[in-house]
Design goal:
752 residues; alpha+beta; five-stranded antiparallel beta sheet
């Protein structure tokens, strides 16, 4: 690292550059009317409209420019209606036009890309790849912005072209890049080093970008309001403008972004593998009007640049981190694209970047997301339809209409039944490729159903779609058949077992216990994945999906499945001892002991007993897996699938250890409570004891068989090695003689 630093400094000194001296005192920057407009930092729709009402010429000029661009684009778009798809260039023209108009139109295009019902499939697909990369602005302007925001009069850094207002003063940074490493629609980033020795990333806002955003939002809002009146639309299109405006406004407030990063770390420290970069207040602009944000420099890589084994881990981490935000913490990174995630090479942790745009998800919606994921996994279409209704994705009464009337105005919907819409969802998703493994298939299927059935568009839907579609793109780089629902399932179950609201707790209690506190057997069977026959059918379906015979439930690779299984046990293992596991502990305490014990030896619990036999057998076999004189541990490792290590921070390790201790205490208390109650049911207790004895005996037999197989395999391998030893000796001698002969021939040839 020290050699790299010296090389960088040496290259910087050798490069010729023009000295730039500031002509104005950065501490005496004059404020204008826009500074007062942005003073409170919050997005205020009424205040913005009032501000620009007094500046009609400026609004008219910008509107003229926007109208000119869109009229030309409209002509170009319509002229290609009859062209073959492979020859059309209008998608590229649309992206270029929005990029040139600025950040508000870029963000607006990205938002509209999730609404094909409003703008059509082709336009939506074109906007999905809308780039935010822009040409960088002048470095001299960026340097001046840095010293102005940080109130520094001297040079920017040692041996740096920007000498500031007074070159005799101490430089602000130890080193500072002479050109940006990245440029986007709102700003650009430089690499630097502080005098304290920290390598940092310095983000500098584009000049006048706040003025541009304020003006463009006003034009955008006025245009959508006019279109609504012109089209007599019942959809409030200005909601889209408000969402875009408030989102971009958030991203312009760099102090807010820094605070978001701190809040993200606070809420997600228990995960242990994900974090946000720390920021440096000393090198960040003033609150309310900061144009400079300095954060730690992350030495890492994006998923496309990683080896395959690390791609798989990063994909799993990305899915878990985003799902935990959506269903567990409710504090969601609203722009989780591939460029905003890196794997830190120092500790293999997942680092999110760019916290300008965040979203809060209500507890009820989080619980709905969790139920929806479980419904997709189990194929419970009735429950999925009810979840849609619960989270506001459908009206309180399910409705439909004739699809031929979809384009006609004011055609009323008529009521339909739960079974009808559930069947429609089932048929549509099962006809989609990857309908039960890919969120993109769900989004496409529901978009097609919306021609017949009445679906609503609550504000969180765009966030949900954007997050899951982005995650699918990231996961596909590790495994084309990566099942995002299965990867998300542990946190969905954890949320379902740890409701955040009183209504959620009552709903969970009703789901698991009857009025008499007896265990709901149907719910338990559903939670464990159904009965044996259903599991077998599912396994066959999974196998056929892996072989390419079924698109309904395509299976991920063996590595993906084993990693998901390991993470499922790790994520769910600590819930009983976690603070949020209070509801689960209460229900486990209140359940009727007699009904629970009777279920455990009943035919319906055969799957649970088989799992218990396998677990106990593994415990008995485990000591032999360390290797004996007969069993070679190295040979076993060659045949096993080694999964990469899962990163865990020190703080998360302490949290996990506390939860494990609390879980053991809870299990001890619950077990003691139920054993004391069990004496009231002597017949049930006797039958349960016999069942436990049978489980123990079967586990012992299974473990013995496995140890014998390992012993026989190892003995056969060693016997084969002994039997073939003479042949290997003769072969080695023969190879040596051949090499000597070849060497002698080569020597004689060289002499000649």
């Amino acid at each position: 690292d020290e050699e790299d630093e010296e090389d960088e400094r040496g290259e910087l000194e050798e490069q010729p550059f023009v000295i730039i001296k500031s002509t104005r005192d950065p501490t005496k920057r004059k404020e204008d009317a826009y500074d007062k407009l942005f003073a409170n930092g919050a997005f205020d729709k009424k205040r913005l409209l009032r501000f620009f009402r007094r500046r009609p010429v400026r609004v008219a000029g910008r509107m003229t420019r926007i109208i000119t661009v869109f009229r030309r684009l409209s002509r170009q778009w319509k002229s290609q209606d009859d062209w073959p798809m492979e020859k059309r260039t209008r998608a590229k023209l649309l992206r270029e036009a929005l990029s040139k108009l600025g950040p508000v139109f870029v963000k607006g295009g990205q938002t509209l890309s999730q609404r094909p019902d409003l703008i059509g499939e082709e336009a939506a697909d074109a906007l999905k790849s809308l780039q935010q990369e822009n040409e960088p602005f002048e470095d001299a302007i960026a340097f001046q912005t840095v010293v102005e925001d940080l109130g520094h009069l001297g040079p920017l850094a040692e041996n740096h072209p920007f000498q500031g207002y007074d070159p005799t003063l101490k430089p602000l940074f130890k080193s500072f890049g002479t050109s940006p490493i990245a440029a986007a629609s709102l700003g650009q980033v430089y690499k630097a080093e502080t005098w304290e020795g920290d390598r940092v990333a310095v983000k500098v806002q584009r000049p006048n970008v706040r003025k541009q955003v304020a003006l463009d939002w006003t034009c955008w809002s006025l245009s959508l309001s006019a279109l609504r009146r012109l089209w007599r639309s019942t959809n409030d299109l200005s909601v889209i403008a408000d969402e875009v405006g408030s989102g971009v406004w958030q991203e312009l407030d760099y102090i807010s972004e820094a605070n978001h990063a701190d809040e993200f770390n606070r809420r997600h420290n228990w995960l242990g593998f994900v974090r946000a970069p720390k920021w440096f207040p000393k090198y960040t602009g003033p609150a309310g009007k900061a144009r400079v944000l300095t954060t730690e420099w992350i030495e890492g890589a994006h998923i496309a640049d990683l080896p395959q084994e690390k791609k798989l881990v990063m994909a799993q981490m990305a899915v878990e981190a985003c799902v935990a935000q959506l269903v567990y913490t409710g504090f969601v990174h609203a722009d989780p694209h591939e460029g905003n995630m890196m794997l830190d090479i120092s500790d293999d942790s997942l680092v999110f970047l760019d916290f300008g745009l965040m979203a809060e998800v209500d507890g009820k919606i989080m619980e709905g997301f969790a139920k929806g994921i479980q419904s997709m996994i189990s194929g419970d279409w009735r429950q999925l339809a009810l979840v849609f209704q619960e989270v506001g994705f459908t009206p309180e009464v399910f409705e439909k209409r004739n699809p031929d009337d979809a384009l006609r105005k004011k055609v009323p919907y008529v009521e339909c039944t739960l079974d009808e819409i559930a069947l429609a969802i089932k048929d549509q998703l099962e006809s989609e490729a990857g309908g039960r493994s890919r969120f993109g298939a769900l989004a496409t299927g529901l978009a097609r159903l919306s021609a017949t059935y009445h679906f609503l568009t609550p504000p969180y839907i765009i966030l949900l779609i954007r997050t899951f579609l982005t995650l699918e793109g990231i996961a596909a780089k590790a495994d084309p058949n990566f099942n995002i629902y299965e990867a998300a399932l542990p946190y969905a179950i954890r949320r379902a077992m740890a409701p955040a609201t009183p209504d959620g707790f009552e709903s969970m209690r009703r789901a698991w216990l009857t009025d008499a506190n007896a265990l709901n057997m149907d719910r338990l069977k559903e939670f464990l994945g159904g009965d044996d026959d259903e599991s077998a059918d599912s396994a066959k379906e999974s196998a056929s999906g892996r072989d390419g015979g079924s698109d309904v439930l395509m299976r991920p690779t063996e590595e993906s499945e084993k990693l998901m299984a390991r993470r499922r046990s790790e994520v769910l293992g600590g819930i009983l001892g976690a603070t949020e596991g209070a509801a689960l502990r209460r229900i486990s305490h209140d359940v009727d002991t007699g009904s629970l014990a009777a279920y455990l030896y009943s035919p319906e619990a055969s799957g649970i007993r088989k799992q218990a036999v396998k677990m106990l057998s593994d415990i008995l076999v485990k000591p032999t897996k360390g290797g004996t004189i007969f069993i070679d541990k190295k040979e076993q490792k060659e045949d096993s699938l080694d999964l990469p290590e899962w990163p865990e921070s020190e703080e998360a390790r302490k949290i996990r250890e506390r939860q494990e201790i609390a879980a053991r205490r809870a299990i001890s208390v619950l077990l003691g409570t139920h054993l004391n109650r069990l004496w009231k049911y002597p017949i049930i207790a006797a039958r349960l004891a016999l069942s436990i004895a049978a489980i123990t005996l079967k586990a012992f037999v299974l473990a013995t068989q496995e140890i014998c197989v390992d012993l026989c395999s190892s003995a056969a391998s060693k016997a084969l090695g002994v039997a073939t030893f003479p042949f290997r000796v003769v072969r080695n001698l023969f190879n040596k003689n051949n090499k000597k002969s070849d060497s002698g021939d080569a020597h004689r040839t060289a002499s000649v």
